[in-house]
Design goal:
With 97 residues, the protein is mainly alpha-helical. The chain is built from 4 helices and 2 strands; from the N terminus they run αβαβαα.
């Protein structure tokens, strides 16, 4: 019950949640690092799922894929969007790049 209240209070205005790694492009990194980053994103995804929020969620391997997903969503809805990025400075920097 408390978890659902958290979802309603803090995430009610979100249309989409995307979890990604800190890696900009797969080609720019090692398989070991990509796997480690995938595990972190997977853990975060599992935590999100445990909250029981009804907001659509996706998990992608790279920041580039996350940007593509956001662009696709924007093109589909034809609405202006706001993007909230939380995580490390690497993630924010990769998104800006």
């Amino acid at each position: 019950m408390v978890v659902k209240k958290v979802c309603l209070k803090y995430f009610a205005n979100f249309d989409l949640v995307i979890f990604t790694t800190n890696i900009i492009h797969k080609e720019n990194d090692t398989a070991e690092r990509l796997e480690r980053e995938r595990e972190i994103a997977s853990t975060n995804t599992n935590i999100w799922n445990s909250l029981g929020c009804k907001i659509p969620m996706s998990r992608v391997d790279t920041i580039h894929n996350a940007v593509q997903l956001i662009e696709s969503y924007t093109n589909k809805t034809q609405l202006p969007i706001h993007v909230l990025i939380t995580g490390s400075v690497y993630l924010v920097g990769g998104f800006i790049a």
